[in-house]
UniProtKB/TrEMBL annotation:
Pfam family, one: Peptidase_S9
InterPro entries: 6-blade_b-propeller_TolB-like, AB_hydrolase_fold, Peptidase_S9_cat
Keyword Signal attached: yes
Residue stretches making up the Peptidase S9 prolyl oligopeptidase catalytic domain: 543-758
GO biological process, one term: proteolysis
Keywords: Hydrolase, Signal
GO terms for MF: serine-type endopeptidase activity
Protein name: S9 family peptidase
N-terminal signal peptide: 1-22
């Protein structure tokens, strides 16, 4: 018979076990990982449903939230959380109100202590419009239309078609009934297709072939842009995260044609501000660092590898605004060759493998011309051998080489009013002739080719055709349709996208595009949506099918897109003429473009909206404060509102470029420019906004922090202005998820219907 002492011990143990099992661990638990001197906050949100534990993970420093974990258990006082895709396992014991344990990832075991916390959403959730309010806004767009918003913005059923290198398989993405876009591989001979890569909560940001048997795909977490690169066999086995490092951004650098088992990637693993190259085994996941980028004040900004994976040179930033070019010295090291301004362009397109001299390379350069041109250079002597291709009016930056034909030139291309491809080789002359014969007046791109260069994947499009994939068989001289990405949109019903040019108020020729609905072509003045592009530097609007402008045209709105000064493609002088002019002369160009289309009689100047994303969103806010009477309303999508806070909240991997950003935008340390920043920061002029505004934001945006939108909304709300505010907590810099995109455009159409078509439009009154 047990003694009373023994019974007491047994009772105590049973009681402790009972309380451990019964203890409620649901809620949010916060801790901080210390990784190589850096602190990284993590939050696990634990919930229980039908007696089953579930959890999500937030990484606030990376702007990621709500990442679903695969498995969560709490047994015998031990918490275990698994996230298989990222190779994460957290195991901890509960001690009072604290979890003490170990965070395992990628072979690293780091201590992590979690304490109970109250989770808060990014920004100020109290500002966000309710679902009911946004649905009410959407409902204002009435009328019977042939095509719905879903017709324009549902992801294509199938797209991104690619041949395997040996031409035996065809890969593609296909959308399921839930809008998820999986990757399939089809055996061309048998016709059998299998789903290889499954898209779940996180979006597949891109994919491609690594070799005959293996593919890669790219995903981030909740739109935080910290991409991971994964690899998988064509039968769906050996699915591996090749870059299993939390909070690290992976840039795909080189696909080594001569080495089927390895690729080159760049990671900001050792320091979030800079990237270093690694050689990755795509089968085993073995990773080897190839070079060190340890001068944080003068970091390497680009690496040049040859087809065999040998590092041949690199570009090192100097004092934040210069680029020092280094090239191999023949003794295993690198020597300084040339210093360039960051405004100079001198980039290697490809080494010239057609010659035995290993140092010849094709480069795109603007060192000796205003327009970028393609040169053949001797890199060892840093000497131009010959000018290979140029255009007097536009930058040239693209060419193709044929590996099969000893790396002879296949084509050149550049973007003018439309994309122009100039065939050089007999192969590309045959392709060009066949496309022009079968599909006249279309624009085409060669997306892919097999290793033997007998089969080519083409994408054919126009301003009225979303896009059709074609396979071209060189031996048969045959063009075969593979897939129409948007068969529900009949090109006959689509609107024309017309190139335009005009002279700005200070005498500069500006180019752009106007998409006109049928009513405008019949002589009716229609409402217009002015759509400044993002960037802004080096970016431009292009001719081709644009679902936004086509949707707007179907509802009776014209769309104006202006390639204002600082846009890319028109030469160095035009680009640089927009530096220090953001919100000023760049904005004048947009206004002059609107005046031009009004004077042409195409649009009604009293019914002009302004809408844009990123810099375009900034342009919306600037337009409503700079010229308060010009626009009837505006839609700001992930736009900058305060240049001071924008500069302070840029992602860590932008920080080495901060001096350049300040040269393009403005530098608050220069007194005169600080005054300009105050002048062109819309948040300082909220009192001037007197037209309706709709604000849209992704909560996890690493580029334009949610605070940029909150500032504008709270400022207008303080004036009792009704500002619809849409925030998606699973998105970043622009919406990537189909359901969010469709909801956005429905709300936008309701907003336009209210403020462009209704007679009761009134300005905001204080």
């Amino acid at each position: 018979m047990k003694s009373n002492r023994q019974l007491l011990v047994v009772f105590t143990l049973l009681l402790c076990t009972f309380f451990a099992k019964a203890q409620d661990i649901t809620g949010s638990w916060k801790g901080t990982l210390k990784v190589q001197g850096m602190e990284m906050p993590l939050i696990f949100n634990i919930s229980q449903e039908n007696n089953v534990l579930k959890s999500t993970m937030d990484s606030p420093s990376q702007g990621a939230s709500g990442i679903p974990m695969d498995e969560t258990t709490f047994t015998d006082n031990t918490l275990t959380i698994l996230f298989k895709q990222a190779g994460i396992k957290y195991t901890a014991s509960l001690e009072g109100e604290t979890f003490n344990g170990t965070f395992n990832q990628g072979g690293n075991a780091l201590p992590l202590t979690l304490t109970k916390t109250v989770i808060t959403l990014p920004g100020n959730p109290d500002l966000v419009s309710s679902e009911a309010e946004l649905k009410a806004l959407s409902s204002l767009s009435k009328g019977q239309y042939k095509y719905s918003v879903e017709d324009y913005f549902s992801n294509p059923k199938g797209y991104t078609f690619r041949f395997s290198p040996n031409g035996k398989y065809l890969s593609y993405r296909e959308r399921d009934e839930n809008g998820k876009q999986h990757v399939y591989v089809k055996n061309i001979e048998t016709g059998e297709a299998n789903r290889v890569i499954v898209e779940s909560e996180e979006l597949i940001r891109g994919y491609g072939w690594l070799n005959h048997e293996r593919l890669y795909y790219v995903m981030d977490k909740g739109g935080d842009e910290n991409n991971h690169i994964y690899a998988i066999n064509l039968d769906g086995t050996n699915d591996k995260d090749l870059t299993p490092f939390d909070g690290v951004k992976a840039n795909f650098s080189e696909l080594l044609k001569e080495d089927k088992d390895h690729i080159i990637v760049e990671l900001n693993k050792n320091n979030p501000q800079v990237f270093e190259p690694y050689k990755l085994n795509v089968v085993t996941g073995e990773i080897t660092q190839l070079f060190t980028n340890d001068d944080i004040n003068n970091p390497i900004s680009g690496y040049e590898f040859d087809k065999d994976g040998n590092l041949r040179g690199y570009t090192k930033m100097k004092d934040g605004v210069f680029n020092d070019l280094y090239y191999e010295d023949g003794e295993g090291g690198f020597k300084f060759m040339k210093q360039l301004s960051w405004k100079d362009k001198f980039g290697i397109i490809a080494f010239d493998y057609s010659t035995e001299y290993a140092h010849d390379a094709y480069v795109v350069s603007n060192l000796e011309s205003d327009k970028s041109e393609i040169l053949l250079c001797d890199l060892k002597r840093m000497k131009v051998i010959e000018k290979v291709f140029s255009n007097p009016n536009y930058d040239v930056s693209s060419m193709g080489l044929s590996k099969k034909n000893n790396y002879a030139i296949d084509y050149f291309s550049y973007e003018g009013e439309k994309n122009v491809l100039i065939p050089v080789s007999d192969t590309y002359k045959k392709i060009d002739a066949k496309v022009n014969e079968v599909l006249p007046n279309m624009q085409y791109y060669v997306l892919d080719k097999t290793e033997d260069e007998t089969k080519f994947m083409l994408y054919v499009t126009s301003d009225k055709l979303y896009g059709v994939y074609y396979a071209y068989d060189l031996q048969k001289d045959e063009l075969k349709e593979i897939y129409n990405t948007m068969p529900q949109l009949n090109p006959v019903d689509m609107a024309e996208m017309r190139p335009i040019s005009f002279t700005s108020r200070d005498g500069v020729t500006i180019h752009g595009y106007i998409t006109l609905p049928k009513a405008a072509l019949n002589g009716e003045k229609v409402p217009v949506i002015v759509n400044p592009h993002g960037g802004p530097q080096g970016v431009r609007d292009s001719w081709g099918f644009n679902p936004e402008t086509q949707l707007f045209a179907s509802r009776g709105y014209a769309t104006l897109q202006v390639n204002f000064r600082i846009s890319g493609g028109y030469g160095r002088a035009f680009l640089e003429s927009g530096f220090k002019q953001i919100g000023r002369k760049a904005m004048d160009d947009v206004e002059d473009g609107l005046k031009y289309v009004i004077d042409k009689g195409w649009v009604d100047g009293d019914k002009a909206a302004i809408y844009g994303a990123s810099h375009g969103g900034y342009a919306v806010l600037r337009g409503l404060t700079k010229t308060p009477d010009l626009y009837a309303c505006g839609v700001d999508y992930v736009g900058v509102s305060n240049l001071f806070t924008f500069m302070k909240s840029i992602p860590p991997y932008w920080k080495p470029y901060l001096k350049i950003i300040k040269e393009i935008w403005y530098d608050e340390d220069v007194a005169e420019e600080k005054l300009i920043m105050e002048e062109v920061s819309p948040v300082n002029h909220i009192d001037k906004i007197k037209k309706p505004l709709f604000v849209v934001q992704g909560a996890n945006d690493p580029r334009v922090n949610i605070d940029e939108s909150d500032q504008i909304v709270s400022g207008l709300r303080a004036r009792n202005v009704d500002v619809p505010y849409m925030v998606k907590y699973d998105e970043g810099h622009g919406f990537g998820k189909e359901e969010n995109t469709i909801e956005l455009y429905k709300a936008m159409l309701g907003f336009y219907a209210k403020h462009l078509n209704e007679e009761q439009r009134e300005p905001i009154k204080d």
